[in-house]
Every structure is written in C-alpha cells, then in structure tokens.
Design goal:
Strand content: 5-15%
Protein name: Enoyl-CoA hydratase
InterPro entries: ClpP/crotonase-like_dom_sf, Enoyl-CoA_hydra/iso
Helix content: 40-55%
Oligomer: single chain
Strand order of the largest sheet: 1-2-3-4-5-7-10
Length: 270
C-alpha cells in the first residue's frame, strides 16, 4: 500500500488537499477539505490532476474510487475563487481558475479505468460535476444531489447540463439546471443517475464488490474501458460500429486466454 497526500502550500494548514492510496490495483482519491465541505480549490484541482497522471501512467491500476473526508462529498468550487473570478470573469486569471476546476473533473471522467464516485451527504455544482464525471456513482438514500448554480445566480459551467442529460435525460436535466430541483440518493438511483443508493454502512462492501473484479486484471479492464468510451460516448456509436470496436479487442483477449483454459476441468485437461 502506498499513499501520497498532496499538501496545500501557503494555506496555513498542514492538512493535505487530497489523500491518495494505491493498493492491489485500486487507486483511491479522497477529497480532504471537510471544513469547507470539500470545496474544490486550485490546490485541490492541481492535486487531482497529478493523481490522474499517475493512474494513467500506471498499467497496474485497474479502477479508481473517488470519495471525500467528512460527512459531505463536495460543495462545488470554492466560493472564494468564485468571488475573485466574478470581479472580472473574462480576465485571464479568472479563466485559468475556472479552467483548473473544470480540468480536475474532466480528467477523472477521461481516465482509462472505471471510476467510482462515493457520494455521501451531498454534491452541488462542480461537486456534482465531479460525481457525474465518474463512470459509476454510488450514494446513500438521503444524500442530496443539487445542481446549485441557479441558487447562486450563475449559469451552470463545466458541461453541467450535458453531464446531467446523459444521466437523467432532458426533462430531469432541465428541472435540475433551470428549475432548481434536486434529487435524493434514492431518487437518483431510481432515475439512473446513481448506480445504487444504500445505507452508509453498506457502501464499503458495495464499492469493494465493484472494484475488485476491475482491479484483478487491469490490462483487460483498460481495454474494456477504451471500448466503452468509444461505444457509449458521448456521443454514442451505432451497434454496427460497436461490433467492430469490440471485435479486435475480443480476439486479443481470447488469444491471451488460450485454448486450454476453456476446459471445464482446467488447463491441461481435456
């Protein structure tokens, strides 16, 4: 097991921006700003990018789990950065700040392995973007998932409407982004935004059950995810194209498996 906490230079605290671990093919990223409900600041965004660089370059990693310290997943972008950007939103400095936050969850959503977001308490704005960027979202029944931008009087950012739309469809995306509606974890699971909503005590077992098979064979998992991203999009491809995308990779996996391994009696038996 290895860990690599990312420090927040000049913040006046010894608390790392994120906590990371890499164990048996599972990479874990834990947001670590609980005093501000894990709001994403520039230091945290940079640390997330570094974590993603390591995952991308390490072929031994087969799955990523994203969670958070404390009782709340992520309250969005740090309001102090939003306030600074609001002074002159078109300035290079403001664009760089928002782009850094966007880049963090875009990188998570582009990783070559499946990503599992464990959302407890709530996720708002850019925090919901981070959760939706993951391939699989698991949560608790009473967690609140809230667009949040409308309440702050600003337009959604970071492709928020698109992320919502691909998860819950047009009507629910408009209801959340333009009409200020939120979803509980149970509602999110019922509408397809979350994979499952279970009691907090059961989350660890659920995540382990999802992560273990993916971590067992990282090379195969990465090839499956390449096909999944090509086929499912966005944009998704037609079935005929999906067949061709999978053909060569399935042949590779079959040749790797070998003829003898198909025997019900095990390798070397007929």
């Amino acid at each position: 097991m290895t860990s690599d906490p990312q420090q927040s230079p000049g913040s006046g605290t010894d608390e790392p921006a994120i906590l990371t671990s890499f164990v048996d093919g599972v990479a874990r990223l834990t947001l670590n700003n609980p005093r501000r409900k894990n709001a994403i600041n520039l230091v945290m965004a940079a640390a997330i990018e570094e974590f993603c660089d390591r995952v991308t370059s390490d072929p031994g990693i087969g799955v990523v789990v994203v969670d958070a310290a404390g009782s709340y997943f992520c309250s969005g972008a740090d309001t102090r950065d939003l306030a600074s950007s609001s002074a002159d939103p078109a300035s290079p400095e403001a664009v760089a700040r928002t782009s850094a936050v966007y880049g963090a969850f875009v990188r998570v959503g582009s990783l070559p392995v499946p990503t599992i977001a464990v959302v407890v308490g709530g996720a708002v704005g850019a925090g919901l973007n981070l959760a939706l960027a993951a391939d699989i979202l698991v949560t608790t029944p009473d967690t609140v998932l809230d667009s949040g931008f409308l309440a702050r009087g600003i337009h959604p950012g970071g492709g928020h409407i698109s992320l919502l739309g691909r998860s819950v469809g047009r009507p629910h995306a408009i209801a959340m982004a333009a009409c200020g509606q939120s979803l509980t974890g149970s509602e999110a699971a019922a509408r397809g935004l979350a994979y499952a909503a279970v009691p907090a005590a059961d989350l660890a077992a659920l995540v382990d059950g999802l992560a273990a098979p993916a971590a067992r064979d990282p090379e195969l998992t990465r090839r499956v995810m390449t096909s999944a991203r090509l086929e499912l999009g966005p944009p998704a491809v037609p079935w005929s194209s999906a067949i061709e995308i999978e053909r060569g990779v399935q042949m590779w996996s079959m040749s790797r498996k070998g003829r003898e391994s198909w025997s019900s009696r095990g390798p070397g038996r007929s």
